[in-house]
């Protein structure tokens, strides 16, 4: 990684360096679906449907709420990476403290507002009385570690910015491993049911945050992390707030696009809805693989920006973009060749299998058409160009809805898939148009 300090020479940009950043993220992502499967699997051994529904519903509610704080990871990568690139050791430490303060305040706010938040969630997604009761038990246990869960975003962002993605891997591996082990103990061993799943997650989140703090110990080696006049500098807090707000707005628009895709697909019947859900898992596979290289783009661009080196910005963008294209091309070919088998593996209903095959080519096209958007997201995050991300996302958002209005009545579910792919292309094109300005600003 680049050495920190104003006189330090930058480390060379090599493919080995890109892979060293990216691969631990790809491997850590692989543990996420395993945890979800175990959560459902252990309560499934109780022989009742309600506990499964409660765990699934509770996890979705909290995942959605915590996902809103994803801006904290992205913003932290940009701000810390640029400080490291500029050789400002004190700001490298101070930015972590600021991010952890946001996590603490945000988590405390969720704890205080848990009753109205959960009420709103159940109003939007009503369930049976039994499922809702069990879900409330689950939520009221898990919400108490909201500060720790959100802090993991901040800690992950700092580690990615410092190119310590091996630390991110171990945090995720230990956190998910502890969660899985305690699920078996609390649910199958002690018979605690849904509450046992929640308690296991609470313990795992606290351990994950503690381990993340340990991996970030270099930040606490400098007095700047608790130099409160520096940490609470108005200019830096405003800078952080503006960047994180822009990223949040961009992320909300993206979430609305994907949520509307699910809801609009439901209009075409249960079979089509199920087929869409099966195929969207292919996109998650692509995203898990792409994350590592998008993260590499974030940190390398941030460091180049901190050094005010447009040449390194361009080289970082090209090198990480090349790996992004390799991943997207590989997944597209894999979906083309293995798609029917994967569909049969995920869905046993013959109608759903047939329906999913009808739309498989959209998922073959998705990695190819979405590659530019996904990689440019990482590039713009690293450069701290939150306003560009927000504005280009707004254009893509409008184009998506125009495509839905025009294509859905004519092409049905094919029109819905086409609209989603159009939003990918629009995001890639609009961000691409803004890229020269990003490079010029680095100087």
List keywords for this structure.
443 residues; 18 helices; 0% strand; mainly alpha
Tell me what you see in this structure:
With about 450 residues, this protein is an all-alpha fold. The protein folds into two domains: about 1-230, no CATH class; about 245-443, no CATH class. It is built from 18 helices and no strands. Helix 4 runs parallel beside helix 13 and helix 12 (about 235-265) packs antiparallel against helix 18. The longest helix is centred in the middle third of the chain and has 37 residues, at about 270-305. It starts with 14 loop residues before the first helix and ends with a helix.
Please describe the topology of this protein.
Layout: H1 15-29, H2 31-44, H3 49-67, H4 70-85, H5 89-112, H6 114-124, H7 129-142, H8 146-161, H9 165-189, H10 193-215, H11 228-231, H12 234-265, H13 270-306, H14 310-346, H15 350-358, H16 360-382, H17 386-411, H18 413-441
Quick synopsis:
This protein has about 450 residues and is mainly alpha-helical. The chain has helices at about 15-30, 30-45, 50-65, 70-85, 90-110, 115-125, 130-140, 145-160, 165-190, 195-215, 230, 235-265, 270-305, 310-345, 350-360, 360-380, 385-410, 415-440.
What is the gyration radius calculated from CA atoms?
A: 22 Å
Would you tell me the structural class of the helices and strands? mainly alpha
Percentage of residues in strands: under 5%
User: What overall form do the CA principal axes indicate?
Assistant: globular
Largest sheet composition? none
Total strands: the figure is 0
Low-confidence stretches: none
Distance between the termini: 22 Å
Percentage of residues in helical conformation? over 70%
Count of helical stretches: 18
User: Secondary-structure element order, as H and E?
Assistant: HHHHHHHHHHHHHHHHHH
Count of discrete domains = 2
User: How confident overall, as mean pLDDT?
Assistant: 90
């Amino acid at each position: 990684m680049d050495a920190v300090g104003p006189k330090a020479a930058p480390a060379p940009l090599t493919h080995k360096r890109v892979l060293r950043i990216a691969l631990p993220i790809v491997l850590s992502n692989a543990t996420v679906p395993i945890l979800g499967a175990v959560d459902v699997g252990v309560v499934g051994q109780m022989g009742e449907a309600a506990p499964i529904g409660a765990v699934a519903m509770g996890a979705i509610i909290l995942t959605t709420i915590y996902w809103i704080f994803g801006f904290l990871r992205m913003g932290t990568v940009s701000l810390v990476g640029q400080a490291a690139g500029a050789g400002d050791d004190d700001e490298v430490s101070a930015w972590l403290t600021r991010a952890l303060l946001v996590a603490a305040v945000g988590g405390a706010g969720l704890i205080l507002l848990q009753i109205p938040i959960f009420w709103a969630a159940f109003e939007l997604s009503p369930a049976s009385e039994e499922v809702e009761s069990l879900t409330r038990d689950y939520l009221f246990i898990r919400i108490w570690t909201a500060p720790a869960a959100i802090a993991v975003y901040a800690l992950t962002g700092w580690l990615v910015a410092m190119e310590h993605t091996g630390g991110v891997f171990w945090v995720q591996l230990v956190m998910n491993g502890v969660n899985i082990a305690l699920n078996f103990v609390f649910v199958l061993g002690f018979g605690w049911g849904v509450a046992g799943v929640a308690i296991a997650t609470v313990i795992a989140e606290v351990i994950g945050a503690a381990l993340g703090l340990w991996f970030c110990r270099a930040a606490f080696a400098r007095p700047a992390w608790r130099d409160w006049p520096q940490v609470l500098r108005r200019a830096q807090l405003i800078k952080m707030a503006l960047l994180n707000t822009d990223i949040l707005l961009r992320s909300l628009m993206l979430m609305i696009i994907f949520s509307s895709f699910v809801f609009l697909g439901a209009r075409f019947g249960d079979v089509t809805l199920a087929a869409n859900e099966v195929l969207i898992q292919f996109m998650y596979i692509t995203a898990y693989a792409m994350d590592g290289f998008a993260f590499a783009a974030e940190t390398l661009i941030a460091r180049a920006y901190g050094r005010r080196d447009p040449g390194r910005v361009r080289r970082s963008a090209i090198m990480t973009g090349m790996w992004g294209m390799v991943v997207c091309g590989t997944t597209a070919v894999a979906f083309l060749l293995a798609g029917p088998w994967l569909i049969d593996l995920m869905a046993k209903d013959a109608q759903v299998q047939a329906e999913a095959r009808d739309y498989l080519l959209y998922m073959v096209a998705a990695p190819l058409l979405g590659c530019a958007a996904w990689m440019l997201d990482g590039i713009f995050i690293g450069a701290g160009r939150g306003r560009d991300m927000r504005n280009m996302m707004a254009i893509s958002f409008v184009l998506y809805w125009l495509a839905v209005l025009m294509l859905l009545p004519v092409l049905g579910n094919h029109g819905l898939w086409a609209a989603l792919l159009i939003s990918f292309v629009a995001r890639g094109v609009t961000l691409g148009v803004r890229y020269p300005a990003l490079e010029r600003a680095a100087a």
